[in-house]
Records
---
Amino acid sequence: MELAQSTAAHPPDTAPTAARQRVVIVGGGFGGLKLAQDLVDDPVDITLVDRRNFHTFQPLLYQVATAMLDPGAIARSLRAILQDHDNVAVRLATVVGVDWERSEVRTAEDDRIPFDVLVLATGAVTSHYGIPGVEEHAFPLKSTDEALRLRSHVLACFEQADADPSLLDEGVLTFVVVGGGPTGVELAGALTELIGRVLRKDFPRVDVERARVVLVEATDHLLGGFGRSSQDNAYQTLRSRGVEVRLGEKVIGASATGVDLGHEIITTRTLVWTAGVRANPLADALGLAQTAGGRIVVDDDLSVPGRPEVYVIGDLAAGRDADGGLHPQMAGVAQQGAVHVARQLRRRREGLGPTPFEYKNKGIMATIGRNAAVVEVPGGLRFRGRLAWVMWLALHLQRLVGFRNRWEVLSQWAWNYVSYDRTARLMVDAADDLPPRDDGSGSPPRPVPPVPRTRSEV
Ligand SMILES: Cc1cc2nc3c(=O)[nH]c(=O)nc-3n(C[C@H](O)[C@H](O)[C@H](O)COP(=O)(O)OP(=O)(O)OC[C@H]3O[C@@H](n4cnc5c(N)ncnc54)[C@H](O)[C@@H]3O)c2cc1C
């Protein structure tokens, strides 16, 4: 009886009917979430499917990895974000394929979700380019889990150095970051500050002067896509703060104890890989045309050629600008793509034809560390230093989803700024992450001493 009552109470204007379009969105990241939010007032029934129950603000992952922010500050439950909208259902599931004949999405949990319109927005994954040892030994940085794992590992390395100073000769405090794009630059700068300002005080018995942060980039410049002056500024700033910047150097292999640059092996237990992404592997399972990096080929309205009811947005889509260049894999492209697809769905309901998606570049920015950033705005305006840093802070704060996250991030930033402290330096499951020690004797590696575990966060 309860059930009958609650069904009858479902608002008639949002109750699913055969006439209402069923829009299934796969992925609740920047693109998928924005699309769901844009469609909440439309006469459609939306199912947002994600393998995680939360949305992650990836641009601040490096701050979680360097103990500046708690993970909860940059992630938010999808159900909490969308709970006020009767026409949106959130489904926790991993999509593994699409049954094109029956118009159903297939999930790893063996469910099928029928759709009239399907929007694929599963983003990108780390690409290791098949370099031997990298996938096994590198720390990627694309999720809160990975950021937490890296944070725990960095702290565990210091615990190890404290317990056994001889490990410094084995590179336990050498941190190699590969990839000189914004993430690599931001992470290298933040790691140097964490070590120099915070861990130095936490570990007074450790010879922190011997800690190294090495940033390796294959091209002859940092921050590809930025202007020369911003690239030079990032290079000079990082160097002045103690980062060893290696330009024109390529990683050709990695092991538990080192990173091979061909002419030199850097002895280290920490390789962070920010050097490449490829489309989410779901793209490979759909039988659709793809680019070299796995992105799904789309028409200029972001629909899949020959399948006007299927759209692809964000990092997964191979959208192109007027010159034929692929759109950058950035949050703004994903969000603008979402707004465009919402508009296309409205046009279709009105019997109108498709319009092309035009990405509007509103500028690019990267932070290098405390009081240091570079910002480039279309039209040639360039900012650097403290002003650029404040612009970077303000924009990222404004882009975070929800007031609670903004407040949490702002308060943690403010505390870090005035106190030079890092509030989130907790180790979570770190003991499993330390690579085994190789003493060169050929005998089995010595076990890593246990490290304290603290579990107080997500
Ligand atoms: C460390 C880092 C820093 C970045 N910094 C910036 C920056 O400063 N500025 C900027 O513009 N961009 C930045 N980016 C890039 C930006 O985050 C991406 O371009 C953006 O997230 C792409 O949005 P999306 O919706 O395509 O994918 P995502 O936001 O990655 O979302 C994909 C979603 O799909 C879900 N998913 C994946 N596979 C499945 C599946 N099989 N089934 C169900 N769900 C699935 C995931 O859980 C996720 O929620 C950064 C990225 C990283 C990793």
Note: The longest strand covers residues 44-50.
---
Amino acid sequence: MSRQEVLKAIRQQSEVSVLIVGAGINGIGTFRDLALQGVDVLLVDKSDFCTGASAASSHMVHGGLRYLENAEFRLVKEALHERNRLLQNAPHYVKPLPTTIPIFSWLSGIFNAPLKFLNLRDKPSERGAFIIKIGLMLYDWFTRGQQTLPAHRFTSRIKSLEDRPQLNRDILCTATYYDAWMPYPERICLELVLDAETSNSKARALNYVRLDSAADDTVTLLDEVSGERFDVKPKVVINAAGPWIDFANRAMQQHTRFIGGTKGSHIIVDHPELHVMTRGHEMFFENKDGRICLFFPLLDKVLIGTTDIRIDDPEQVDCTEEEIDYMLELVRKVFPKIKLDRSHIVYHFSGVRPLPSSDASTTGQISRDHSIQVVEADDKLQFPILSLVGGKWTTFRAFSEQTTDAVLKRLRITRQANTRQLPIGGGKDYPRFEAEQAIWINRVQQETGLSGERVKTLFERYGTRAEAIAKYAAAEADEPLHSQGDYSRREIMYLVLNEKIVHLDDLLLRRSLLAMLGFVTGELLHEVAAIMSPLLGWSVDEMQQEIERTAHILQAHHGVTSDKLRLVPQV
Ligand SMILES: Cc1cc2nc3c(=O)[nH]c(=O)nc-3n(C[C@H](O)[C@H](O)[C@H](O)COP(=O)(O)OP(=O)(O)OC[C@H]3O[C@@H](n4cnc5c(N)ncnc54)[C@H](O)[C@@H]3O)c2cc1C
């Protein structure tokens, strides 16, 4: 169903069993699970799908080694199991990530950790080899028997320096363990939405629709595109607004204080030497202030993060100059000889972790676990609100399952299916081994007449959904973009027609990595906007507004320079 058709259907029939406010990973995961149970469910987001915290993650699919120190054993175990499930169910977008910790001390943290378990110490400190060894042993133990990823190992100082000659010579050794990463979190979100709608015609998702207000049995929604307001009458509301949960509850006359968010920022740098020196690993360590620092290759760039700063207003979250200094400095700590500065940054992004409200004295101590906070129906509202507080990207499926179970109980519906082994989007029928992939690519090449190289690119970008895109691309004359030759005109058209795109920035920031990898130029903005324009019915003025809107977002929130976005006249 198109956006207009969904809006029309809701205007005709305003009753809905479940309304989910917020299409980050937790709202979307719950949407998919409820859809699978045959429930009529409406998902809305004030922005595009996956624009909040879910678009600001460090891209790690991980157990969370550090949370062991806060004694969050349940969370770490759950997260490790979910990591392994994601490796199975979304193999096109979730990949193993060898992770190396440079270690500068043998015993540091040895007394802190037990005291922290007992809540007797909250001062952060660096972790030494002994504490890291215990953590990694637990990490391996939680997934024993699964053999999805190799166990951890320690490497001597001499060998570590041989492997990475630029490494800080003060290290005593390194430890390497395995987690996973996801290049395209935004695409996983989108694919989950599409999967849900395919599985159930009564499951409908709308981006750019805001929860506006609520009274009695009615929630009023605002279409951010047309400015129109319309009503829905839900039996249950799920507030999955992440860092905005308390704001959304306030809009529904409920004054809660569930969230105490912390801001985190990342930079993306174009630095081939640093890229090579990572050896394809994530470099992961805890700074003296107890913050987690990491960097790893994001395709041909390097992603560096992250900070952890308390914040009240989730709308005010841009990466500051101090944060950039902090992140550049932490890379220098690991690779002091590598010259890295602001000129290497192609993009930055920030977001707010929707952590539970807490009076812990350091942000690192705030629980990363998730919970459902319920506000029951009362004299103001005739429906309950279930607020989804906290939760890692990695654990979304488990959190969604728990939320779905809570909703099914209220609706007196029996669960029909579960999502534990359900493939996601282009992870369906995914050929896992190189030989199978070659056969797959060869078959699609034969059927479409595209080159093997082109099919391989599409396969790496979209998993098995690449087949539909390749067929669409091959159906009529196609050509590479002038401004970005590994994308084609009809590939863009396919995304616009099939992936719920409303604005130019949806395509450049969330359906693709074009913005994050620093590929957006003035020429690309104009070229892509011109392809989208007839498909979305934009007038010349509207197309220009879209270009300006995207340029503004990139400059104001992602550090892209106006020079880069200027349209250079072709001679
Ligand atoms: C810096 C950072 C790094 C992180 N790194 C990792 C990591 O590496 N691995 C990991 O597992 N987790 C990580 N996390 C945690 C993870 O990203 C979040 O916990 C998770 O994405 C939260 O998802 P959510 O769906 O609850 O919230 P969000 O993704 O924020 O979604 C909430 C949505 O609600 C919408 N909304 C708000 N108000 C309204 C309204 N009135 N009407 C309609 N819609 C509304 C917003 O537009 C938003 O899209 C990180 C988080 C941050 C911030």
Note: The first strand starts at residue 15 and ends at 21.
